[in-house]
Design a protein that fits this description.
The complex is a heterodimer of chains A (about 80) and B (about 130). Chain A is α+β, with helices and mostly antiparallel strands and about 80 residues long. Chain A has one domain: Translation Initiation Factor IF3 (2-Layer Sandwich), CATH 3.30.110. Helices cover about 35% and strands about 35% of the residues of chain A. Chain A contains 2 helices and 4 strands. In chain A, strands 1-2-4-3 form a 4-stranded mixed β-sheet, covered by helices on one side. In chain A, helix 1 crosses helix 2. The two termini of chain A are about 20 Å apart. Chain B has one domain: 3-Layer(aba) Sandwich (Hypothetical Protein Ychn, Chain: A), CATH 3.40.1260.10. Chain B has a 4-stranded parallel β-sheet with strand order 3-2-1-4, with helices on both faces. In chain B, strand 1, helix 1 and strand 2 form a beta-alpha-beta unit. In chain B, helix 1 runs parallel beside helix 3. The radius of gyration of chain B is 14 Å and the shape is globular. The two termini of chain B are about 20 Å apart. The chains are: A alpha+beta (about 80), B alpha/beta (about 130). Chains A and B meet through helix 1 and helix 2 of A and helix 1 and helix 3 of B.
Chain lengths: ~80, ~130
């Protein structure tokens, strides 16, 4: 079972959630899953774009009560 | 380099400083080499220890200043440097006009730079102005 790091970026506006994710990515191990919580819709679409651009793995997004849960995996 | 993004910031207005910070930070973490040149009214906000405050140019700036959770613009430039290897240089002419020494500005800024060097480094890449 992969460890999962959770970043709570609720209440933060773009590009806050993305920047928090990136800071966490730097500290994460390859293979680690990171879940980022955001109330910012723009970030919920921007984060998967960034993941694709820099070639990490995008595992999906769930929206629950106005909070987006974006799941990603560090691949390199 | 085809992924070079150069940003000239001369405005001291909140909206423009915020937008420049957003382009710099998102650009830098997305695989681009980002070079920022701070001059004119954009230099004073980067005095060491100064808060990320600037006058609003319009309605949006007023809302930006009031909204909780908006990343402060100086933090965005700093993230660009720390997370994305961006280079943020103060204009040497503006430093001279304001009487700033390198130690008077934020430590994440690079050394004062002149236009010759900036234009040379900006080269063929895209240039954004704020």
């Amino acid at each position: 079972m992969a460890n999962r790091r959770v970043i709570d970026a609720r209440g933060s506006f773009c590009p806050g959630p993305l920047m928090e994710l990136i800071a966490a990515m730097k500290m994460a191990e390859v293979g680690e899953e990171i879940e980022i919580l955001s109330t910012d819709r723009g970030s919920a679409t921007d984060i998967p774009e960034w993941i694709r651009k820099v070639r990490h793995e995008y595992l999906g997004t769930e929206e629950k009560d106005g909070v987006w849960h974006v799941l990603v995996q560090k691949t390199h | 380099m085809s992924n070079r993004i150069s940003i000239v910031v001369v405005s001291g207005s909140l909206e423009r400083l915020q937008m420049a910070g957003m382009v710099a930070s998102v650009g830098a973490v997305s695989g681009n080499e980002v070079l920022v040149f701070l001059s004119m009214n954009a230099l004073a906000p980067f005095r060491r220890g100064a808060a990320s405050q600037a006058p609003a140019e319009g309605e949006f700036g007023t809302r930006l200043a009031q909204k909780k959770g908006v990343p402060p613009f100086k933090q965005l430039f700093e993230s660009a440097v720390e997370l994305g290897d961006a280079k943020v240089h103060p204009c040497s002419m503006a430093m001279d006009v304001l009487g700033y020494r390198p130690e008077d500005v934020e430590p994440f800024l690079g050394e004062p730079m002149g236009l010759t060097k900036f234009l040379d480094q900006a080269g063929e890449g895209r240039v954004w102005t704020f």
